[in-house]
Amino acid sequence: MTAQHAQWGSRLTFILAATGSAVGLGNIWKFPYMVGESGGAGFVLVYLVCIALIGMPVLVAEWLLGRRGGRNPIDTMAKLARERGRSRAWALLGVSGVLVGAVILSFYSVIGGWSLYYTGQAAGAQFAGADAEGVSEIFDRMLASPGTLLVVHTLFMAASVAIVARGLKGGIEMAVRLLMPTLAVLILVLLIYAMFTGHFGAALHYMFALDLDSLTGGTVLAAMGQAFFTLSVGAGIMMAYGSYLGQETDLLSTARTVIAFDTVFALAAGLIIFPIVFANGLETSEGPGLIFVTLPLAFAEMSGGTVIGVLFFVLLSFAALTSSISLLEPAVEFLDERSRLGRVGATVLSGALIWVLGIAALLSFNLWSAPLPVVDLTVFDLLDVMTSQYMLPLNGFFAVLFVGWVLDREQVRRELGLEGVRATLWSLAARVIAPLGVGAVFVAGLT
Ligand code: PHE
User: Which of 62, 326, 387 to probe ligand 1 with, by most ligand atoms within 8 A of CB?
Assistant: First the structure.
């Protein structure tokens, strides 16, 4: 165990780091294509409801647990369970969080690699003058080459390892402080562009005009999974980040801020991408390639598109990086505190294992593109579905259950600064609504 546990520099730093973790490929890459695959507004509605009713209590619960435990997620859960005279088996929640974070990072890094590749393509002015077909070809060519994917996956992993190895602060705080506002400006520029493509109204309609027919059990499950994924909850991360938090930070208002940023980024990404999809007669159900075959088209047409394209993919890469760092952190915190490897050794070891799993994920796009037997999914899809749709909600369910039912209710209320009606509302959310919500969605999705 390290003698001294690090702490965030300030509340702002924590907000930026947590927002940096939350805002990432999940918002810009995954959210729009999931909306597209699920047919639009029904998915968006369930997603927003899940964020508010389930995501928020789970996020607060994980921070609270992390801050109380003051250690890596596994020891935090073991310590808190012991204090309350409960079974040591609660430590499994920490174990599961750490593992899920690592598994997500394996495929996340592959997509982070795509962002790096596209940064290079944009810089080489490869999109200039390209049409929809040309742009799809660039994407397909990248996917067909295991070598290319391996190089960019390795680069992305190496960058994550280099940052995490330097410790909690080592540059991350400065980086997010600079990058997050810049990302916001760029999203705004693209949003304004999207408004003038003439198909903005269609995109609004697509995302917000509710059509209940598109709502199936599977859609609901996917939307809840995405709500967990986008908030980075259920993967030990917010617990790990909470362990570096001081008592003075107000968890509820901080959660509201982080969630607001995260939601705005996701909705904006959708409103940028769908107008381009409609304007160019592309398919909304394109899947994981969606942003990689739509945005380059916009960059090809707009004046100054090459510069904006480079900036966009650089920032997408950085947004991915501020999330991948967080995905690595729980495993590293655990290994660092519980072994003699030291911070650097712990980071390199975790990074290397995750990198290997990532190779299996990237081969899903070429050599191993045939679906696995039984599950009928590629390795990439299996890792994604298993973690996002099942493990994250399950871990979140137990985290909020622990805070709601195992911890002392009065103490929790005091820690959150809640009284009267708000205290009752919190208890209702943490004890009943969030756990039942996760349960209900599971039942709906699995039947
Ligand atoms: N929330 C991040 C994103 O939306 C990804 C992530 C998922 C990070 C799960 C941590 C845990 O890109």
Answer: 326
Q: How far is CA 163 from the centre of its chain?
A: 18
What residues make up the domain containing 16?
3-446
CA nearest to 7, candidates 242, 238, 239, 231: 242
The pick from 232, 332, 391, 394 for probing ligand 1's pocket by mutation, whose C-beta has the most ligand atoms within 8 angstroms, reads 232
For residue 147, report the distance from its CA to the centre of ligand 1, in Å: 26
- The residue whose CB lies within 8 Å of the most ligand 1 atoms, and thus the one to mutate among 323, 324, 391, 395, is 323
Residue pLDDT, tens place only, 298-345? 888 877 888 888 888 988 998 899 999 999 999 999 999 999 999 899
Q: What is the pLDDT of residues 63-90, one digit of tens each?
A: 999 999 999 999 999 999 999 999 999 9
Can you tell me which residue has the tokens 């985290």? 399
Q: Do 130 and 300 meet the contact criterion of CB atoms below 8 Å apart?
A: yes
- Nearest alpha carbon to residue 128 among 297, 338, 323: 297
**Span from the CA of 297 to the centroid of ligand 1 (angstroms):** 27
**How far is the C-alpha of 219 from the C-alpha of 216, rounded, in Å?**
5
Please give the tally of structural domains in the chain.
1
Structure tokens at 391: 């493990």
**Which residues approach ligand 1 with their CB closer than 6 A?**
21-22, 24-27, 104, 229-230, 232, 235, 237, 323, 326-327
**Domain at 348, CATH number:** 1.20.1730
